[in-house]
């Protein structure tokens, strides 16, 4: 497989990580583009990408870390990728959450995550444990589950309640989701893409977002279809079949950015 083919195969998943890390499709995709541009300008970096996912994520991490340091040193005068504004990086995903995302959402081993972050495996392991402890202390919210498979819906209910959150409703179709939201405003939405009656979870979520801003996590068997960067797409995506730890990490990250945006608006 050529370098180009290798990068292309892994690019959708790097976009997923970048969006979850930054809390924004636009910002995440801008950093992915900046990573590819850096590789084109550096032959050694470009050659390293032949090694697969780990070198690609490590290259991204260097670009991301450099941008954060630039913002820390120069504030609004920082030179950042694409349309990214300096204040967008004021709420930075802490290192322990980065480690958790790498080991859950992206399914890297502790050793691979250490290589990506350029720290020791022991440090990564401690960061992951610290991040998990933080999740246990998070404030509760109400969650709407839009899922047409009854067993998966029940699994998500158990998981959400286990994290201390409430269920404001469940829905298997777009119409059912509308009915739930008419009576209860969720603080978080977990949504499948393809629903029972042929309706779309994307449309159901659009209905909800037309009423107010709510963090949304899509859970789908085909995340790569929503990770092209060509149109407005979800920020948080979990792949089916999912691990509970992955959903927990995604919920925590979505609420992390939502809580910080509410604090900034207050």
What do you see in this structure?
With 266 residues, this protein is of the alpha/beta class. Helix content is 57%, strand content 9%. The protein contains eleven helices and five strands, in the order αααααααβαβαβαββα. Strands 2-1-3-4-5 form a five-stranded parallel sheet, with helices on both faces. Helix 8 links the parallel strand 1 and strand 2.
Summarize the structure.
With 266 residues, the chain is of the alpha/beta class. Helix content is 57%, strand content 9%.
Instruction: Give start-end ranges of low-pLDDT stretches.
Output: none
**Strand order in the largest sheet:** 2-1-3-4-5
Cα-based radius of gyration, to the nearest Å: 19 Å
Secondary-structure element order, as H and E? HHHHHHHEHEHEHEEH
Oligomer: single chain
The structural class is alpha/beta
Q: What share of residues is helical? A: 55-70%
First-to-last CA distance? 51 Å
How confident overall, as mean pLDDT?
88
As a percent range, the share of strand residues is: 5-15%
- Can you count the beta strands? 5
Write a concise keyword list for the protein shown above.
266 residues; alpha/beta; five-stranded parallel beta sheet; 11 helices
Topology of this protein?
Elements: H1 3-22, H2 25-41, H3 43-48, H4 53-74, H5 95-103, H6 110-117, H7 121-136, E1 142-146, H8 150-162, E2 166-171, H9 174-183, E3 188-191, H10 201-209, E4 216-220, E5 236-239, H11 244-265
Parallel strand pairs: 1-2, 1-3, 3-4, 4-5
Helix pairs in contact: 1-2, 1-4, 2-4, 4-6, 5-7, 6-7, 9-10
